[in-house]
Structures are given as structure tokens and as C-alpha cells.
Amino acid sequence: MKNKKETAPTTEKERENFWLEIGPASAYYGTDSYETAKENGDASPDGKARGFEGAEPKEK
Predict the structure, then answer these.
(1) Residue 38 or residue 3, greater confidence
(2) Where is this region: Disordered (predicted)?
(3) Is the model's pLDDT at 1 over the cut of 50?
(4) By the 8 A CB rule, do 34 and 26 touch?
(5) Distance (Å) of CA 5 to CA 1, 11, 22, 39, 49
């Protein structure tokens, strides 16, 4: 297992990419963001563009 120093994003660009890679919070079942997005639609349109379906309501 790598230590925190080896795996932690060190530059601003790495930190930005880290969050883009894991996707929006609404993509994860059980989070408050998921429940809100399920009720109101995904508040993160960028998430869908990056391939995250999340709690986005399915079109009928």
C-alpha cells in the first residue's frame, strides 16, 4: 500500500483531475446529493457529459 505522500495529488491540476475522475457526488447511491438529484434531476450537468449517470432520472 502506498503512503499518503505518494498518492496525494500534489499540483492544482492533479487535484482538479482527481475530482473529475471520481465524478459528481450525485453519482454515488446513499449520499444526500444522490437523493436531491433523484428528486430534482442531476445538478451537475458536467457529470453526465463525463459519463456519470448518477441519480439522473431515466427518460421514458
Answers:
(1) 38
(2) 31-60
(3) no
(4) yes
(5) 12, 13, 20, 39, 31
Q: Establish if 25 belongs to a structural domain.
A: no
> Domain range spanning residue 55?
31-59
Element (H, E) at 56: none
Q: How far apart are CA 44 and CA 60, in angstroms?
A: 21
Using alpha carbons only, give the angle 29, 42, 21 rounded to the nearest 5 degrees: 65
Q: Is 50 a member of any domain?
A: yes
**Beta strand ranges found along 1-60 (DSSP E):** none
Residue 37 C-alpha cell reads as 438529484
pTM over 0.70: no
